[in-house]
Amino acid sequence: MASIKVEQTGSIISTGPQIVLPGDLLPSAETGLLEDAPTAPVIKLGPGLQPMDDDSIAAVKAGVLKHTAVGNRWWVESNQRRYVAAAGESVIGVVVGKTVEHYKVDIGTAQPALLGVLAFEGATKRNKPDIKIGALIYCRVSLANKDMEAELECFNPSTGKADGYGELKSGFLIKVSLGLARRLLDPKTLILRLLGQHIPFETAIGMNGKVWIHSAEPKHTILICNAIKNSEYLNKDECAVMVKALFEKL
Amino acid sequence: MKELEPSTNEREFVLAALRDGARIDGRNFYDFRTLRLSFGADYGAVEVQLGNTRVLAKVSCEVIRPFPDKPTEGFLMFNTELSPMASPAFEVGRQTDEEVLVSRLIEKAMKRSRALDTEGLCIVAGEKVWSIRVDIHFLDHDGNLVDAACIAAITALQHFRRPDVTVVGEDVTIHTLEQRNPVPLSIHHIPICVTFAFFDNGNHVIVDPTHLEEQIKEGDMTITLNVHKEVCALSKAGGIPMELDQIIQCSKIAVIKVAEITAQIEAALAADAKKR
C-alpha cells in the first residue's frame, strides 16, 4: 500500500487513488476490522477482494481501491478486456445455441451463459419468445458462481417487467474494454451526451464490454461507434474536439 | 477454442453499410488501414502493424551444404507461426485450413516469385551455401494476415544483412559483424500482396478486410504484384465466381496500392538506415 501514509496518531491520510496489487492486505484500521473492536462492522466486498483464512481481506487483482460509505462497500477497480460474470450486471450477449429449456448466450465469459426460455416478460410455457441463433440479447446476470455457467434473465424478477431487457433488433455491436464500458454508464462521462447533441441514437451498454448502437443511418452508427472507441483515452475537452471534428467531416 | 460467428445484427449492419458506401471503420472501399513499420535492434527484425493486425518477421541465416543437384543454389525458408497469441481460434499443433492457406500463400508470393536471388547465396559451389530463414510470428489478428505478413517478410529481407565471407582457395572465412560490415541480400523485386474481399455476389469489392469483414465476406482474392506491374501470384481459393473484368479492375487497384506500400517500405528503410 504505497500510497497510504500512517501517521503517529493512527489516522490515515490517503494521497490520491490507492493502488493495490494482488496479495496486498486491506489495512484493518481503514475497514474498521480491528481485532479489539467490540462489534465487527459489516462490510461488503466487491470484485477484486477476497477474505483470507485469518479474517483479513486481500486484493486478488491489481487496480484502484474504491469505497463507498453507503453499505460500507469495498472493491477494486481495474481495466481489462476479459469479462468475469458478476450477479446483477447488465450484459449484451449473442445467442449461440438453443435447448428445450435454455438459450446458450455468449457474453464473453469462459463458458456460454444460460438464459432460461421462460426468463422473459410475460413468458409462459405456451407463449415464449422465439429467438434465433445469432441474435443479440440485452440481459441481466441473475446468478454467477465461480466455476459455473452464469445464468441470465431478461426481466426484473420482483416486478415481472422487462425493464428494457430483451432482444436487440438491428443496430451494430462494438467491443470495448470493461473499464470504458463502466465509464460509459457513468452519467459524468460526456461522450454519449456530446454525440447525442448531434444525432439521435439508441444505445445499450453491457458491463461485459459490449456496446450496442442503433441510429437511423449506417453512416451515423459507424461514426458513433468509432467516436466511442476513440474516446477511451481522451479527456472531456479532447472528446468535444473529436466529436466536433467528426461531424464537420460528415 | 472455436471461433464464434458474428451476430446477425453485425452481419446485417456491415452489409447495409457497404450498400450505403461505408465501411465499419470509416475507411473507403479501396483504402488500406494505417501501416506502421518498426525495426528491431538487430538487422532483419521488423514489426508490421496494419490497423490492429500485428506481424513480426525475423530473418536469420546459417551456412549449410546445398542439394547435389543444385550445387550453387542457396536456401530461402519461411516459417509461419499462428499461435493463440494472435487469436484464440488458432491452436498450437493443429493447423486449420485457414492457417495452411495463409502459410502457403506467403511462401508462394515470396519464394516462387523468386524475389530473392538464391544463386547469390552460394559461397563454394556444392560445398557451402547460405540458408536464409524467415520466421513470421502473428501477434494480433484483426484480418488480412497475408498482406501484413508479406510486407513484414519482404521488409525484413531487405533490412537483413548477412555476415561477409572471403573465400581463398578452399578456405572460407566468415567475418563477424565487428570485423567487417555485413552485406545486404540481393533482392530482385519487391512482391506485395493485396487482398480483396467480395460481398453481395461481387457487387461490393473492398481492400484489406478486417477480421469482421473476413467473417462475413462471400469470397476473397489475393493478388501479388511488384512495382513493375508484374503479377507474381494470384490466389482465389473458393468463394463466389468472378467475372474477368472484375479481376482486371482489382489488379488495377492493386497496382496503385502496391506503389503506395512499396514507397512506404522504402521510406521506412531509408529512415532506419540513417539512424544506424
UniProtKB/TrEMBL annotation, chain A:
It comes from Lobosporangium transversale. It comes from the Eukaryota. It holds the Pfam family Rrp40_N. InterPro entries: Exosome_RNA_bind1/RRP40/RRP4 (IPR026699), KH_dom_type_1 (IPR004088), KH_dom_type_1_sf (IPR036612), NA-bd_OB-fold (IPR012340), RRP40_KH-I (IPR049469), Rrp40_N_euk (IPR041054), Rrp40_S1 (IPR037319). One of its GO terms (cellular component) is cytoplasmic exosome (RNase complex). This is Ribosomal RNA-processing protein 40. Residues 43-82 form the Exosome complex exonuclease Rrp40 N-terminal domain. Residues 171-218 form the K Homology domain. SUPFAM superfamilies: Eukaryotic type KH-domain (KH-domain type I), Nucleic acid-binding proteins, Ribosomal L27 protein-like. GO terms for molecular function: RNA binding.
TrEMBL record, chain B:
Residues 32-163, 189-255 form the Exoribonuclease phosphorolytic domain. One of its GO terms (cellular component) is nuclear exosome (RNase complex). Signal peptide: none annotated. Coiled coil: none annotated. Pfam families: RNase_PH, RNase_PH_C. It is found in: Cytoplasm; Nucleus, Nucleolus. Keywords: Cytoplasm, Exosome, Nucleus, Ribonucleoprotein, Ribosomal protein, RNA-binding, rRNA processing. It comes from the Eukaryota. One of its GO terms (biological process) is nuclear polyadenylation-dependent rRNA catabolic process. GO terms for molecular function: mRNA 3'-UTR AU-rich region binding. Its main location: cytoplasm. PANTHER family: EXOSOME COMPLEX COMPONENT RRP45, EXOSOME COMPLEX EXONUCLEASE RIBOSOMAL RNA PROCESSING PROTEIN. Belongs to the RNase PH family. This is Exosome complex component RRP45. It comes from Lobosporangium transversale. The lineage of its organism: Eukaryota, Fungi, Fungi incertae sedis, Mucoromycota, Mortierellomycotina.
